[in-house]
Design goal:
Blueprint: H1 2-38, E1 40-41, E2 44-45, H2 46-54, E3 55-60, E4 67-68, E5 74-87, H3 105-116, H4 120-127, E6 134-136, H5 146-154, E7 160-169, H6 177-180, E8 182-185, E9 192-196, H7 197-201, H8 203-206, E10 211-216, E11 230-232, E12 239-242, H9 246-263, E13 267-273, E14 280-286, H10 302-305, H11 315-324, E15 333-335, E16 338-339, E17 346-347, E18 357-359, H12 360-366, H13 369-380, H14 382-391, H15 415-422, H16 431-442, E19 447-448, E20 453-458, E21 463-467, E22 472-474, H17 479-494, E23 511-518, E24 520-521, E25 524-525, E26 532-540, E27 547-554, H18 564-581, H19 598-601, E28 604-605, H20 614-623, E29 627-631, E30 639-641, E31 647-648, E32 653-657, E33 662-663, H21 672-682, E34 685-690, E35 693-697, E36 704-705, E37 710-716
Parallel strand pairs: 4-12, 29-32, 34-37
Antiparallel strand pairs: 1-2, 3-10, 4-5, 5-6, 5-7, 8-9, 10-11, 12-20, 13-14, 13-27, 15-18, 16-17, 19-22, 20-21, 23-26, 24-25, 26-27, 28-31, 30-32, 33-36, 35-37
């Protein structure tokens, strides 16, 4: 009986346990089914969790588009750099004899601070942060060059390491800076984003998009052999090719620097254009900035965004209108001195004395306000004058492919202002409007739209995304009128009575017009000889202009000199060097015996020297009147810069590399342009400080130069 009871109890227990196990199995089955159906546990997606544990995603970096000049020379590019970091987490160190974190904060700060330009106390503060795995050093620790990286590594400071990075680099430094603008890295995305100029307006073309690769891994982070990889290719930014010519732009930058150093003007505006196409070959202003440093005092591109009363350069277009309408007789006489009109009389610039009865052609040469008042008021009529202002594009924006172009301010409400506009007062226009209008004078009556973007290319497939073609935007005058205007404007420069005598260039016929504009304020016009905008709008060669150069210098410190002096320093230098660089031969021989030296005056084309012996290459260049710079100790030339067939000017420095190991030459007294040549052939990043000629170089003479080194040169305004 007892045994039966015991069996019964055991059977009941077994049944109970079976029930428990059945319920447990059922709950597990339901849970398993639920997980299988929903793919989640406690709200977490298992696939995502598995992907996190067993999948790795690594970025494939893309490159921001490069900006090139018209000849394919780099103006803006992404360049490899390094970011400095310090490891603070002591758990990373497994071997006390080989520490992987910062051990001695004070010693690390003492040695590191001078190299990155920080105070020692600042570095100590950064390295003393608690609960941090690693720390960075702000802007001082970014964009570290290869040379500085090697110096820091040589200190062998525990816990100090580097992360490979890229930085937006502008190899020419201060170079068309308001046109190019700059790009800067955002803190969150670590991507360079255009902040100004073309870098900003072309952001959608230049911006890159990183790709990535996904693969399966084990718990040791090794890629599994049967990994099903997913690869998304990076999308590089598009490359932008400009119409800007690096050589002509350098001529302009150097000339503006000289005027700044000598005359300290408030502003300079300058443009070089091809009148046959509308291409802008150079554009600059002062004050400017180095986009690598972003030492910006003004964000406006004055060439396109600063309307001002142009002064007598506007007379070019009043003259053209009168000739085109058949009302201009250059040999007819008028009484110079003053012209009666409502309000004070309009006077000539010599205090209203005038030059007695003179012809209208002489009035153009002498820049008579009275003569142009009569042309506008009596011969042409102000209604027709306004029609021509519209035809020449002064009543609307040019539409140049640059951001923030300003509108003109044509003041035509009062009769006096209408007449004053004819000689460049009362109304305000931009420099780019004047250049566009001048293309009609220089291009047989056809007015060309100015542009700076030649083409945009997708570097991933080589296709052209966007291309600009020359565009005729008007025919304000006939070809015959354009020829006659050019002939008269040539006498402004060549005649002894002309105001443009300072703008003569030996061997070339220059057609142009001077301008002296008053500066308007809320209290009226400024007084004093220096308080003007002095300008010149010139075209050359006169018979078939290849270049238009416009220069305006505001409030230079003249110290008794004529306002044309600083303007001609820029115009003459840029125009002459550019014409020679473009291999446009002088139209006439110089009368000066000193100017007959062929080596001094003729444009040269550089021969190919690669493979030649060092001695022969050296001799050949000297015979051509050039200055060879031998780099290395080899017996043969392995590369040269500039390249063969490049147009060059006399005495120009030519870089000849003769071996892979090169010692740094003594560059004291070199121009910035020559330093850039050296950087190009040696693969060295050049950074400049100041303007003028080299006074100091960061890589000492006879030091071995490595590709990727950063060379910083200090420039001063006087050649050593």
């Amino acid at each position: 009986m007892k045994l039966t009871q015991k069996n019964t109890n055991m059977n009941r227990g077994a049944a109970f346990l079976s029930l428990i196990f059945a319920l447990l199995f059922l709950s597990i089955f339901i849970r398993f089914f639920y997980i299988q159906a929903t793919g989640t546990v406690h709200g977490e997606v298992l696939a995502a969790r598995a992907e996190m544990l067993y999948e790795s995603k690594r970025p494939i970096e893309a490159k921001r588009g490069t900006i090139y000049d018209a000849n394919g020379e780099v103006i803006a590019e992404d360049k490899a750099s390094y970011k400095l970091v310090a490891i603070l987490d002591d758990e990373l160190t497994t071997d006390p004899d080989n520490p992987q974190h910062v051990v001695d904060i004070q010693e690390t700060a003492q040695k590191l601070a001078p190299l990155i330009g920080m105070e020692e106390s600042e570095v100590v503060k950064i390295l003393s942060k608690k609960g941090m795995y690693q720390v960075e050093f702000g802007s001082a620790g970014r964009d570290i060059s290869q040379t500085l990286k090697e110096k820091i590594e040589a200190l062998k400071l525990p816990g100090i390491t580097f992360i490979r990075d890229t930085t937006r680099f502008y190899p020419n430094g201060l170079f068309a800076s308001h046109l190019i603008g700059y790009a800067q890295k955002e803190e969150e995305s670590s991507k360079a984003v255009g902040m100004m100029g073309l870098e900003k307006s072309l952001e959608k073309y230049l911006q890159e998009e990183d790709g990535y690769v996904k693969f399966q891994k084990d718990h040791y982070n090794w890629k599994l052999p049967n990994s099903n990889d997913e690869i998304v290719a990076p999308k590089n930014g598009n490359d932008v090719y400009l119409t800007i010519d690096q050589k002509i732009q350098t001529f302009l930058e150097d000339a503006m620097n000289q005027v700044v150093n000598q005359y300290s003007p408030e502003n300079i505006i300058a443009v070089v254009a091809d009148p046959k196409t509308g291409k802008i070959l150079a554009m600059g202003q002062r004050p400017s900035f180095d986009p690598n440093k972003r030492d910006i005092t003004s964000y406006a591109n004055s060439v396109i965004s600063y309307p001002f009363e142009p002064g007598s350069t506007m007379k070019i277009f009043t003259l053209a209108a009168a000739i085109n309408e058949g009302v201009y007789n250059g040999n007819a006489y008028f009484q110079s001195g003053s012209y009666d009109i409502e309000g004070p009389p309009i006077k000539d610039h010599n205090g209203g004395r005038g030059w007695g009865p003179i012809t209208y052609n002489e009035g153009v040469q002498r820049s008579s306000n009275v003569g142009f008042s009569i042309i506008a008021d009596q011969l042409l009529g102000t209604d027709r004058l306004y029609q021509y202002l519209n035809k020449f594009g002064f009543t609307k924006k040019t539409g140049i492919d640059l951001p923030d172009e300003a509108s003109s301010k044509i003041n035509f409400d009062k009769h006096r202002d209408q007449v004053s506009t004819a000689f460049g007062q009362a109304s305000a226009v931009t420099a780019i409007q004047q250049v566009q209008a001048a293309t009609a004078i220089a291009n047989n009556g056809k007015m060309m739209k100015p542009y700076v973007i030649d083409k945009i290319v997708d570097i991933d497939n080589g296709k052209t995304v966007k291309e600009t073609k020359p565009s005729v935007v008007g025919h304000p005058i006939t070809e015959k009128t354009a020829d006659e205007v050019l002939s008269i404007l040539e006498t402004v420069v060549s005649s002894e009575k002309g105001t443009g005598k300072s703008f003569r260039i030996e061997g070339y016929d220059i057609a142009g017009k001077t301008g002296t504009a008053q500066i308007s304020t809320s209290n009226g016009y400024l007084s004093g000889n220096d308080n003007h905008i002095f300008s010149f709008l010139g075209m050359a060669p006169k018979d078939d202009p290849e270049l238009i150069v416009y220069v305006a210098v505001q409030q230079p410190k003249l110290e008794g000199k004529a306002g044309s002096v600083p303007v001609s320093m820029i115009f003459n230098t840029v125009m002459e060097n550019s014409l020679k660089y473009m291999q446009i031969a002088p139209s006439k021989e110089s009368d000066s015996k000193e100017a007959t030296n062929d080596a001094e005056k003729e444009e040269l084309v550089l021969p190919s020297l690669e493979g030649a012996t060092s001695a022969n290459a050296n001799k050949n260049l000297k015979d051509l009147g050039l200055t060879p710079i031998l780099l290395g100790n080899g017996n043969y030339v392995i590369s040269q810069y500039p390249e063969a067939e490049t147009p060059i000017i006399s005495k120009e420095k030519i870089m000849l590399k003769t071996s892979e190991e090169v010692k740094m030459p003594n560059m004291i007294g070199w121009s910035k342009r020559d330093v850039m040549k050296l950087g190009n052939i040696l693969g060295v990043t050049v950074k400049t400080e100041g303007s003028g000629y080299v006074a100091k170089q960061s890589i000492k003479k006879d030091s071995i130069v490595k590709k990727g080194d950063v060379l910083t040169v200090t420039l001063k305004d006087e050649e050593a």
